[in-house]
Amino acid sequence: MDMNHSATNLTLDALKSVVSQALLGKFTAVFPKLFKCQWKTYEGQKKLYANFSKDTVSNMSGRKFCVGGNWKMNGDQKSIAEICKVLSDAQLDPNTDVVIGCPAIYLMFARNLLPCSIGVAGQNAYKVAKGAFTGEISPAMLKDVGADWVILGHSERRAIFKESDELIAEKAEHALAEGLKVIACIGETLEEREAGKTNEVVARQMCAYAKKIRDWTNVVVAYEPVWAIGTGKTATPDQAQEVHAFLRQWLTENISKEVSNTLRIQYGGSVTAANAKELAKKPDIDGFLVGGASLKPEFVDIVNARK
Length: 307
Prior knowledge:
Layout: H1 2-30, H2 32-39, H3 42-54, E1 65-70, H4 77-89, E2 96-101, H5 107-113, E3 118-122, H6 139-144, E4 149-152, H7 155-159, H8 165-177, E5 181-186, H9 190-194, H10 198-212, E6 219-223, H11 237-254, H12 257-262, E7 264-268, H13 273-280, E8 287-290, H14 299-303
Parallel strand pairs: 1-2, 1-8, 2-3, 3-4, 4-5, 5-6, 6-7, 7-8
């Protein structure tokens, strides 16, 4: 009986293995990039990116340029496939990190179409792993479908959905704990700028993040003056640099000199191929968070602003 039982177990194990491999083969045929980039282990991907980063050259500050494309609530399978093809075929600057903020339901679709060198981000995530939060998405869910970044604190989340500084900071804390990298957005409204409160506002927003974030290694801050988002108005390179320099000083005084020197600060707000090169020349601007232009072929020129 024992021999028959053992033989049966071996047969079942062999059958399971065959079925498993067949299903895995079918899955990887449908989602080859997702499997290649991320499905095996997240640790393996971290090592891949770590090795890749060692072979690339950062800017003079030691901070690698980082450009994010925030597609917001735009796109369908046809248009996303077209954008992904443009990015896949383009000669993108290898010294620039590229991240695409894709609508949640298209994350796996985009991950499958984009090269592994381009990161994929959720545009929002909640502050806990699971539960009765209808309509919300957790960082664990984003990771499960191939995302490795999340955009948090965007002005549209703050203004339209009334997200507070405190809630956004809690979201960032949980996303980082779950292994996502975070693009943490800040920025002032037109009224606040005209009242001379720009520094006060961005300092308040940074304080909220600082209360919850202990390790800034996987954080990129995106300074986006609200008055320049989608309006066609852009802060001049000098205006943007002034705020970025203030943020760098704030980091020195409130967190550490090391974080101030290493944390990347993007500029966002009507960035286009026409103004990207001038903005990219500023010493404290380490990249861009791009809205509408990231849906167009000119996004390639923005990514290559320092090339």
